[in-house]
Amino acid sequence: MAQPDPAHAAPRLPHEVPASTKESSLTLERGLSLLQAVADAESEAPTISDLAARIGVSRAAVYRLLGPLQSRGLVRREGSRVRLGLGVLWLAGRVLPQLRVACTPALRGLAEKVGATAHLTVADGSEAQAVAVVEPSWTSYHVSYRVGTRHPIQRGAAGRAVDLPVGAPRWISSSGDLQQGAFGVAAPVRGVPGLRASVGVVALQPIAADEIGPMVVETAEAVAEALR
C-alpha cells in the first residue's frame, strides 16, 4: 500500500494543541489545585482522601501529584495527612525582592516627576508595610521612608488606599496621619491576584492632590501591569 506523501498531509490547524501538551497542562493545573487545597486547610491537615474529594481526582492521582511537590519541599506527608512544606517559605522569601525589581522603574518615574518619595505599600493582615521606596534625585530635601516600615492599615493614605473599593475616588490623600507635617497621596494597585497594595507619594509640604493624584493612579496601573 502506498504511503501518504508527508508534503500533502493535512496541516495542523492553529487552534489544535498536541495531546501531550494538553495532558501536561492538566497535570500542572491539578498539581496547583492540590497545593492550594493543602494551603486552604485552616486547622487539621487534610488527608489523601480529603484532597482527592476537594480537587475531584482519585486517591491514586493524588499520590502521583504529591511526588513532585514533595521532592521540592512544597508539601510534606505525616502518614495519610499532608501539610505545607518549608519550600513554600523559601518561595515566599523570593516574592518581595522580585516585587521591588518589577515596580522600581515605575516608582522612579513617579518620584522624579513629582519630586517626592514614591513607595509601594502591601497589606499584611491589619498592617501596611512599605516594600519598595524610591526617593527623588533632584530635590533639596525629601522624606526618607525606610523599606519595611509598618503602620496600621486604617491610617495614612497608603494604608487606606489598599482596600479602596471600585467606584470610590481613584486616590486618597492624607495629612499628618502618620507623622506630623507629612502629606501623602496614594492609589490602589488593582488586578494582581493575591495582592493588596497601593502606590503613593509622601512629602514634607502640602501636595496638590488634584494634580498629583492622576499621576499616582497611572503609576499604580503601571505597577499592576508589571506584576501580572
TrEMBL record:
Q: Name one GO molecular function term.
A: DNA binding
Question: Domain IclR-ED, which positions?
Answer: 87-228
The UniProt record lists the HTH iclR-type domain at 25-88
Per its UniProt record, what Pfam families does this chain match?
HTH_IclR, IclR_C
Where is the chain membrane-spanning? none
Query: Which parts of the sequence are annotated with region: Disordered?
Result: 1-22
Per the UniProt entry, what is one GO biological process? negative regulation of DNA-templated transcription
Q: Which UniProt keywords apply?
A: DNA-binding, Transcription, Transcription regulation
Question: How is this protein named in the record?
Answer: DNA-binding IclR family transcriptional regulator
Which organism does this record belong to? Saccharopolyspora dendranthemae
